[in-house]
Amino acid sequence: MADEAKKDEESTEEASKDAAPPEHHEDAAVTTEHSVTIDGVDVAYEATAGRLVLSEEEGEKKASFFYISYTRTDVEDVASRPILFAFNGGPGSSSVWLHLGAYGPRRVQLSDDGMAVAPPARLVDNEHSLLDVADLVFIDPVSTGYSRAIPEDKAKDFHHFKKDIESVGEFIRLFLTRADRWESPKYISGESYGTLRSVGVAGYLWNRHGVALNGLLLISSILNYQTTGFDRETWTFRRGNDLPYPLFLPTYAATAHYHGALEEPYASMDLREFLDEVETFAAGGYASALFEGTRLSDEDRAAIVVKIAAYTGLDEVYVDRANLRPEILWFCKELLRERGRAVGRIDSRFTAPERFDAAHSIEADPSLDAVIPAYTTAFNAYVRGELDYQSDLPYEILSSRVQPWSYEPFENAYVDVSETGR
After folding, report:
1. What is the fold, at CATH topology level, of the domain defined by 24-226+374-410?
2. What Å distances lie between residue 176 and 130, 171, 416, CA to CA?
């Protein structure tokens, strides 16, 4: 019986080896023809949705990258046109936000003030697309979108600061080769963690392949984690880091101004004029007070408390108890606590009720909760209906499967790519 079981097991293993690999482990592309009106001009273009497989030089497959590219077709010299590679951040985010929210020729329909509309979501032409001036390639890093490691149990190898940069850089090199775009002016655009990735990829392409970029477009830029490293007791290496508080103060102030949470004279002040005052205080009196620490006199501390409260809409007692240092997730919970609502971290215009009024931090991000369903619906309908790309894989809009993310090159230090160079 034992021998028969062993034979069955060996037979199953052999059959598995001979089985055809999953479709998403192979190169594939579907191209369709379209047009869009941008700034009053009709732009004809090809949209290509596909997979590009990265392999070792000896042929072993490493990862299948999903991408969507747009190439303007009503021009004579395509090879000399600028090409822009774009991705979002997270880590764990697909490129859908820059794709269907900013740069692509189609965008998710929103209300006039930029809010999500009632479901189901739909797409409209994007009259502000960059396709009139540059061809576009939207990249989903491994474990986001339809991109997957090969084999899947090797995915954690890509959930790593350096390996992520290298794999995205290799995708760009291979795409330039396959699409014959080496002569094109080359740009990269990233958002949030994608800005950090952009700088890292630029350095990788230069150092490894001699590729010089013509520029970077950075949105919601973060190149040094010390700027956002709030002093939480669970993150011991961040203790004593006061840099984020003055940097975030203008955002707190703008949020409070938007939600009508300020008293006069700031409630009716022009936003730009108001922020000029807040930024001057943040870089001056506030930063100085944090630097002084316990040497700050009671009188000066009280004056700083009053200023912070007036600019942010927070209660003076709360600011004092926070030791002059309200962090972002606390602020999102506290600002509209009396209204029974929390504000969004990604987009603080959004608000939502929460279950526990007594909590010190938000339970979820109202801004993400509001827009993820719209982008999920719109993308899945678009990629199958208009782009004719078929896949049964779930399109990972924001993937938790990339966690834990490894910052191994920066252990016990702040991630910093601000001086990435040759």
Report:
1. Rossmann fold (3.40.50)
2. 19, 9, 28
